[in-house]
Amino acid sequence: MTDVEWWRTAVIYQIYIRSFADGDGDGIGDIAGIRSRLGYLAGLGVDAIWITPWYESPNNDGGYDVADYRAIAREYGDVRGAEQLVAEAHRHGLKVILDIVPNHTSTDHPWFQAALAAPPGSPERARYHFMDGHVVPNDWRSTFGGPAWTRVPDGQWYLHLFDPTQADLDWSHPEVRAEFLDLLRFWFDRGVDGFRVDVATGLIKHPGYPDLGYREEDLLVLTDVPDHPHRDRDEVHAVYREWREVADAYDPPRIFVAEAWVADPERLARYVAPAQLHTAFNFPFLQSAWDAGDLFTVIDSTLRTMSLSGSPSGAPPTWVLSNHDVERTVTRYGRAYTRKHQGRSGHELGPVDEDLGRRRARAALLLMLALPGVAYLYQGEELGLPDHMDIPDDRLRDPIWTRSGGRRRGRDGCRVPLPWTPAPDGAGFGSADPWLPQPPGWGRLSVANQVDDPASTYHLVARALRIRRELDVPQELEWVDRAGSVLRFRRGPDFECVVNLGDTEVPLPAGTVTLLRSDAHAAAGDPLGPDTAAWLRVRGDGTT
Ligand code: GLC
Question: Is the C-beta atom of 321 inside 6 A of ligand 1?
Fold first, then answer.
């Protein structure tokens, strides 16, 4: 694999900047905090970092409401600091991916402010979706709840598929298209290696704005409606063809990963077709229950889907277990049952057994990191962090909570500031009073504690990343066993991964040597207990 092709097999660490590390002690993570921890990330062994939006923003949706795409929010730093961060990351051997939010701007963005100041029908309003009407223009809903339209004082309505402070741009407008090409260049010129494309499926809206036939259960769920009026419309691909040309004009070429919640594998493959986006997140993997049959189906169909991309060398599959929008893996897998629940944050979903969840999460990490292609780690996943389930109501910040009138808890539980040390106040985050409260005893799970403990999840991940890099196994995957509750596959002749998702022990296959196991206290040759995984070297001579 040449360096130019790094994105085909990379392990990419997601930094939720507000909660990663606080460099200036104001309780909010920032660029200085990231810069101070690049050594930690390089030591962990990841290849790249993806930083969630750090742009100027009123922060009504965790920065996904951008007021100025060329400026950094003051609480995070400035563009100079961002450039230094990129250069320093590169010196540590880490690529840097930013988040771009093309579907909507903040209503604080100068374009929207100009639209508000201008009359109906003006060129300023044409960059967004403004409609006349005595009643709401159609039945489209905001992902965070309520109608997707808000009325301005002169009686017109504007579209927002998310928060009312996130106005959807009209991508049929040439100025919108040109502006984003320029934005890509702005950050690529500063050394950035790629972008994660927020809401990549959403940009194009049906010009007639037809009713959708909305149902309550469609919220945040994969929606597979043919000719959907605002999701996954065919015209969106022309946008990404233009973006790819911009990225390919750089040396080395820059890359994209699409946030594309699309249920139909053939539709998903269209985003990673030749001359479009390089990769797309694999959300069905994240949504799968802890169940051998479900996981096999997702893995197998992912590999087939990527071969549909039509790209000569194939689009690499990606794997993700966790991010800033869903429950952390330890919490999700620690529930009393394994029913598929779409990965939503859900305190209403039943009690959580954290030890069980962590055991499964550790096994799932070995499974994910043994698969071909790209893997994403969400900050704190390497520490086996759970969600914070008991954030007091008055500290919750997610618009899903604030806009639903307290009916849906939202995503704050997975966004809690990281514990760096065992310190009782703030757990070494940088301030005694982080912007979101940490659970009691958070410091127990801190980086400092785990670095000192060879059995920790930190060391499991660090070892896995080192072995993954050293072995550099072929990208092909061959199933050895997928019957019952064991998943077992080979990558090339020498490397095997076995995961026991059942209730009983299974012996390790004959003729193998254990490289790594998710149950740190077991001896290398012990049978594999329930909810554990192992990486094995195949000796081929029948001995263990
Ligand atoms: C994406 C982001 C999410 C955000 C939404 C609106 O889904 O991951 O955090 O709320 O887009 O921008």
Answer: no
421 within 8 A of 443, measured Cβ to Cβ: yes
Q: Hey, CA dihedral for 400, 402, 405, 407, is it positive or negative?
A: positive
What pLDDT, in 10s, does the model give residues 20-40? 999 999 999 999 999 999 999
Is the pTM higher than 0.85? The answer reads yes
Please check whether residue 82 is in contact with residue 72, taking contact to mean a CB–CB distance below 8 angstroms.
yes
Rounded Cα distance between 162 and 136, Å, is: 16
CB 61 less than 6 A from any atom of ligand 1? yes
- The region of weakest confidence among 15-24, 217-226, 278-287, 344-353 is 217-226
Instruction: Return the bridge partners of 194, or none.
Output: 97, 255
- Which amino acid residue places its CA nearest to atom 2 of ligand 1? 198
Query: Alpha-carbon distance 304 to 315, whole Å?
Result: 11
Q: Is the CB of 382 under 6 A from ligand 1?
A: no
Report whether residue 325 contacts ligand 1, using a CB cutoff of 6 Å.
yes
For strand 255-258 and strand 279-280, is the pairing parallel, antiparallel, or unpaired?
A: parallel
Q: How far does the centroid of ligand 1 lie from the alpha carbon of residue 65, in Å?
A: 9
Residue owning the nearest CA to atom 3 of ligand 1: 325
Q: 541: CA distance to ligand 1 center in Å?
A: 51
125: left (phi over 0), alpha (psi -120 to 50) or beta: alpha
Q: In angstroms, what is the span from residue 198 Cα to ligand 1's centroid?
A: 6
Task: Convert the pLDDT of each residue in 172-215 to its tens digit.
Answer: 999 999 999 999 999 999 999 999 999 999 999 999 999 988 66
Give residue 213 CA to ligand 1 midpoint distance, Å: 23
488 forms beta bridges with 481, 498
Q: Which two tokens stand for residue 119?
A: 């009359």
Spatial separation of the C-alpha atoms in residues 475 and 164, rounded to whole Å: 44
